[in-house]
Write a structure and sequence with these properties.
There is one protein chain. The chain is α+β, with helices and mostly antiparallel strands. 37% of the residues lie in helices and 27% in strands. It contains twelve helices and 19 strands. Strands 3-2-1-9-10-19 form a six-stranded mixed sheet, sandwiched between helices. Strand 11 and strand 12 form a beta hairpin. It is flat, with a radius of gyration of 21 Å. The N terminus is likely disordered.
Length: 351
């Protein structure tokens, strides 16, 4: 593979980037600066602006997320990424252009080279779409790295050594499971079950149990505030507002952590079954290494209360939460950017 980071003028006046293009959030790491952007992967647009068919972008990121569920008919708040891959190609390009220009500052003389994380289960077509979207958004060159590899690097695991490491990244759209050794994945699995699935289940549970409707933002707040992955977690309660299905009026609801556990537990069980399947398919020598080092959990799902205790109880193995789980992927991607000569073998094929 040719060198990712060039010598000479271009590398001096352009800032190469590492991007975690997630379903829920987009994070950007700038070479030699660190993480400079962490924004929701949301774009607010207005259709038929000024009486024509052109699309007008009203907001991107945090400002656009505030509009979710609150927009009139002429305005749409769109999440262009779904289950870790591009669901809306043109909107993803617009979002990337906006974010890249924000972090480039006055160094927009040369287009940056970019590394982007992709789900390990993404297809060649999906990987090509992400790469081309980055190129069209202004990248000079774009390289891909699979998310479990980025997690392992970000968690400072010895990915280049002949020892086994297991990582579980519970993101917004997918849960990535990988066993790594000698810089490559021995086993990988990508589940389309993650944070968004938890939110949807909470919405459906509140509808069934309380006869009320809550929006995505409220479901996410419930999950983050009192969500629990273990049946023996400390009991907590949260008051939220919803719309009564029968009367159509707003009313207050008391949601308990036990109810949230009941809502999301089927998804937690699915993730644990996938972890067990990965362990069963891991060579015995590497399994021994994992038994000593433990399973590393990252992503927003790692912040659900007692997720580590639940996985430890169900697998019988030690479990470690990655330091700052939300940024683990982009930090690993950024380290690959900074140490490309040492970590060049970790980049994924996109075609």
């Amino acid at each position: 593979m040719k060198r990712l980071l060039p010598n000479g003028l271009a590398s001096f006046i352009s800032s190469d980037l590492a991007i975690d293009l997630g379903t829920a959030n987009t994070l950007i790491y700038v070479r030699k600066k660190g993480i400079v952007l962490d924004e929701p992967s949301v774009v607010a647009i207005k259709e038929n602006f000024s009486g024509n068919s052109r699309r007008h972008i009203l907001a991107v990121g945090l400002e656009a997320k505030k509009m979710l569920g609150r927009t009139p008919g002429t305005i749409k708040a769109i999440r262009p990424m779904k289950e870790g891959v591009i669901a809306n190609y043109s909107i993803t390009e617009d979002m990337l252009k906006y974010f890249i220009r924000r972090v480039q500052d006055n160094r927009w003389f040369f287009s940056p080279r970019i590394i982007i994380c992709v789900p390990c289960g993404s297809t060649q077509v999906e990987r090509r779409a992400i790469r081309e979207s980055a190129i069209n958004a202004g990248a000079r060159e774009a390289y891909l790295i699979e998310e479990p590899v980025a997690v392992a690097i970000g968690a400072n695991l010895p990915v280049a050594e002949p020892t086994g490491s297991m990582v579980v990244d519970i993101g917004g759209g997918t849960t990535e499971i990988g066993v790594l050794s000698l810089g490559s994945m021995v086993y990988s699995n990508s589940l389309r079950v993650a944070g968004d699935s938890f939110d949807t289940s909470i919405i459906e549970f509140v509808k069934r149990r309380h006869g009320a409707l809550v929006g995505e933002a409220t479901a996410e707040r419930i999950k983050k505030s009192i969500g629990a992955a273990w049946s023996e977690s400390e009991h907590q309660e949260l008051e939220v507002k919803g719309r009564d299905i029968a009367e159509g009026m707003s009313r207050s609801l008391i949601i308990t952590s036990n109810e949230v556990f009941e809502a999301i537990n089927p998804h937690i069980e699915e993730i644990i079954r996938a972890i067990r399947a990965g362990l069963e398919k891991t060579p015995p020598e590497l399994s021994g290494d994992i038994g000593e080092r433990g399973i590393v959990i990252a992503g927003g799902g790692a912040l659900i209360r007692d997720i580590d205790r639940r996985v430890m109880e169900d697998t019988g193995l030690p479990v470690v939460l990655a330091e700052d789980p939300l940024t683990c992927v982009v930090r690993g991607c950024g380290r690959a950017l900074e140490e490309v000569d040492l970590l060049s073998d970790v980049f994924a094929a996109d075609y």
